[in-house]
Design a protein that fits this description.
Length: 693
Amino acid sequence: MIEFSHVRHGNEMLLELLNSPSVVSLKTLENKLHLSRRSIFYVIKHVNKELDAEGLYEIENIRGIGYLLPDETRQQLAGKYKKDETVTDFASFFNSFPQFSKLAKNQRQLTETFFLISRDTTSLNQLTHIFNTSKNTIIKDLNEIAVTLPNELFIKNFKSGKSIVGDETVQRSWVFEHLQSLLKLISPFFQPSSDSHISEHLQLFEKATGNILTDDSNSILNSYLQWLLSRIENQSYHLTADKAEADQSFSYDWATQLLKDYGIENQMESRYISKIVNTQAFQHINLNSPLIKKIQPITTKVIQRFNQKAGVKLPAEVGSLNENLTAHLASTYCRVKFNIRYHNPLLERMKTNYRETFELTKIAVAPFNKFVNSTLSEDEIALITAYFSGAMRSSSQTVLPPTPISEVLVVCSSGIGTSQLLLTQLRQRYPNVGFVGPYNIFQYENCSLKNIKLVLSTTSLPQKECPVLTVPVIPNNSDWEHIDYQLQNAGFTTFNLSSNFSQIKVSSIMDIIANYARIVDPQSLEQALRSYFKKPSAESKAGLQDPLLEKHVKLIREPMDWESAVRVSMQPLVDDSTVQPRYIDQIVKLTKEHGDYMAIGKGILLAHASYNAGVNRLGVNFTYFKTPFRIDNSKKDINFVVGLAPIDQDKHLELLANLLRSVQDDSWLSKLRHVQTERELQNLLVQGRLITP
């Protein structure tokens, strides 16, 4: 091991760069050293000071690519420090007492646990030597490890040292779950070669079962089986049972033959290895196997449930999605039944970048949960989410809107309502910019943004391959300046339209008229045109037809919290069967998840969800609260709740346009704040063309 640097993680950094013949990316250093980006920069800075003090060239930063150790420095370090001799089998590794350089606490404790499981006993002195730390640190580590171990395991003291004891299958499961991380940590001393005999047996398994393992599965099984076979050379670690259940599967016969080749005959061990192999991912499966025949109908139900909840049309019974997901669920079934927990390194990223898809998947797997009589972990849900997201992107049968060319995408949590208000203003203010939408979050997560230059959203979104700007539903002057700046950065030419859009119409029409006719009185013509465009369309209908007007306009005087206010406001739509009760629940859920994005400003909340969340027919209601309320963690006072039940993305647009016009009318808003009776409120809504008289 290199012992040049006195900076924590400095020697590991140099070793990683020394062992790489080319540039090492920042991401690779983060993953290999288990450090944050900021910590990587810190280590490089201080290692470079040490190199410079020794007259060596510093680590080079190849901008946009990564980091490189100069050839002169590489030669100096390689000549001065010999690379540690590595062993290739687990028995030799655990008997060699390697000495680790300083590891991070979590890395050290993970490796200590591995030693305590894999060796018969290990003393405190041996642990302090192996991990190059004090005895007090080791004692603290052991106390913390004891708390985090599975319930079936505990640390026991023997005369010769300490060991982790307890349920043998649980110990093996712990090693199997953490093996990939452990192999990285012990790599300076241990490089497992691919055991040719185990590799041959894995090939025989594939031929016998017709199930083809992925490359990653093949690799991890090869390493794990090496560890396991080394362990069960000691019969005290063998699994035992009064009577093993009969097993006539191909994989059981294969495992029995594998063990015979190593001089072991134990039905329970054969059963164990058979199950372990089937917990891994397959790139191809034998559709005629008994397990697959049981799981395939469950897969169909899962896809159908996803389609129902997401409003898409992925092929449920035939095609690559069903086959691939069935193969995955077969492995998942074995992991659940054999209590093998999968640690998904991408879990948090999936929950952040595919939040809606993740939640829909969690609902969709209910038939599989019932089949295995267990609830899948979030790590497993994240894996299945990836299947659905991939299918959404590749399937031509999805209902996602087509991706336009060089456009700006507008997103709202539900894909309607608040974003529609924003869209109206954007299209008026920037007539030369193409705006597409509204998309909901699920559509945003699963669509390609290849031709999208900017995303504007009424709620916070995960960053994807283009800039995302969160904006209010009714932007103020500062917001418009920010939007204008972002549009210009995205390559759009914008007009600074502080006045009404009708000015552009008037000027354009005046120019066209002048090309074909002589204008005698241009000022009067311009004024007449402006007056014309300001008039409401003769074809426009005022608001939504509402036969139950008295039930849908309410004035409430008693104070309420935001959730109660929303439920009270929306209840009339449930009472007359316009919406189902779950529609209100969805509005509350969206508000808890995304905050006050439905608050469109001026004290108004546009309460709405997607039309497939329980809407039976088009409807709207209006509730004014004399005592304002606030949504959690929001500073916006709300008095007026407009409850919208849309049936598609178009039928309610006229109402939204009239609402936007009223919100921008200070006189109308002033009257709203001073209403004293429901009759006054109704008259004001008629005046704003939000309801019919």
